[in-house]
Design goal:
The protein has one domain: Rieske [2Fe-2S] iron-sulphur domain (Rieske Iron-sulfur Protein). It is 0% helix and 25% strand. It has no helices and six strands. The strands form two sheets. A four-stranded antiparallel sheet has the order 1-2-3-4, with no helix packed on it. A two-stranded antiparallel ribbon has the order 5-6. The protein binds FE2/S2 (inorganic) cluster (FES). The site of FE2/S2 (inorganic) cluster has 12 residues, from loops.
């Protein structure tokens, strides 16, 4: 699982299903499906998030992410 934020300046990347990569709409960075930079200006990969199954089947817990009113 990756953070949705581009590693350049933090815009939200979008999954490009036909190209099987993540594209940043702000300055054109592209990331492989594994999160590696395939086109800049970003120079760092997308951040990996650590997660685990929650108590309910439809719940995941993401390390370092807290949501207001949850938990
Ligand atoms: S914020 Fe993504 S390329 Fe600049």
């Amino acid at each position: 699982m990756f953070a949705v934020n581009c590693s350049q300046l933090g815009c939200s990347v979008q999954f490009n299903a036909s190209a099987r990569r993540f594209d940043c709409p702000c300055h054109g960075s592209r990331f492989s499906i594994g999160g590696q930079v395939v086109h800049g200006p970003a120079v760092y990969p997308l951040s990996h998030l650590t997660w685990q199954q929650g108590a309910n089947p439809d719940e995941i817990l993401v390390a370092g992410l807290s949501l207001p009113g949850v938990g």
